[in-house]
Amino acid sequence: MPLALYFFLRILNGDNNFLYPVGLGITLVLVTFMGDIEQLLMVAFVFIMIILAYVIYYIYCAYKRLHIRNPVVNLPFWRSMLIALVVTLVVGSFGFIPILGTLTAHATSLSTVNQYNSAASNEAYSDNLLSFFLPSFYNGFFNGAATSYFGIYYTNGYADPTEKISYIGYIAILLALYGVYRIGIKKAKIWVLIAVVFGWLALGPYMQAGYYHSSSLNISESTITSIPGIYLLYHAIPIFNIVREPGRFDLVFEMAIAAMAALGFSELAAKRLKSNRNTALAAIIICVIFLIGSNGITYGNVTPYVTTPIHVPKIYSEISNSPSNFTILILPAMSDLNSAEPDTFIGEDTFYTAIMHKPIIGGDLTRSNTSEELYMLNVPMAVQAQSLELGARLIILITCQRELYKRDTDD
């Protein structure tokens, strides 16, 4: 994502180098490899926002009779963007065509995606304002103290810290503020705009700040205020509004903070540090403090242990103990494509798959990969119906020495 933004800004700056639009097209394809289309839409959203900002600024300057060069009101810019788009579609066609085909051919795919796409559901995945400034419990040095404010990760009785943690570290924040102070808000306006917009989007439909103790649930929960956020406007934009977890917008927010922090360190090195030795020493000190404030080392006595009792169907152990050399295709038995969770819970799926210690077709352990989900749309309904009738959680097809086995995971 930062690389795609770099190529875009070089094109915006008027650098007439054919490598920049080609590089932009290729990096946009790489962004799609991150697992879903959300990150690609975020990048496109950043591009559109920057273009609109320049257009508005150009109109303002024209009204004030100020003569400026507007990088987006010229043919070379749009020619380069067209080249980038063509490269993206050509190089990434193997990924885009199946996705578009599935979305257009199966209306249930869109309904499943939009199952949680409501303002009420989005609150559970929105960042609390404090999460930008407080180390998370994942932090090895601070995970003990973080338990005292764990309520900021709970919303409506549900906690998903991985979607609600936005802590980037005090060093990055201080360097970013120093960078803006040194070069001025006028020169840093693009990065400030990106940070403000996407940080605000990450807060969700209504701002969450602080936490309170819920007596009914006997847990501490994030306090949802009545202050509306710009996510409500974003939620009304067709096509772009598929980001159901507002907290994921902190990806772009942190990218902008990182750019401003780099400006801050550059200014610090140029104005305050008089030698390369001092610059290197300052860099080492900053890195050490950054690691202390943002590391993920399992420093506590809880993190390394599995605390949830898990029943593992013995089929997975049998596969693991088999000396034969074979590859496994795992197909989710989708009971209802309209449901919010049409296949096995991702955590269980990942855990079970890791136990087998065998090569997996698709090779994706983190989530059910796209190829298997698309394949399931073409599996005869009779196969799904039979497996569900038997209470199967997954259908496992094992190919070994020209033999085909179908086993029920609940055995």
From TrEMBL:
The chain crosses the membrane at residues 18-35, 41-60, 81-101, 137-155, 167-184, 190-212, 224-243, 249-268, 280-300. Keywords: Membrane, Transmembrane, Transmembrane helix. The keyword S-adenosyl-L-methionine does not apply. This is Uncharacterized protein. The lineage of its organism: unclassified sequences, metagenomes, ecological metagenomes.
